[in-house]
Here is the input.
Amino acid sequence: MSRLPVLSGEELIEILQRAGFRVVRQRGSHAFLKHDNRRVTVVPVHKGQDLDRGLLRKILRDINLSTDEFFALLKKR
Here is the structure.
């Protein structure tokens, strides 16, 4: 298993949008994303700060997205 990359919240939102998620609302610095099949997650978007790899792994686990699927979406950048 490869190490997850260090990404900003904005970069993660772009990747998740390629997976079919859309931003439904934002409260402060937290963007709420939803998929048509009812998967939801919250991504913190703090300017100048990257997401911790542990948080990224938790987000992927919450939306049932494997690391292989994530890396495939990452390569489409």
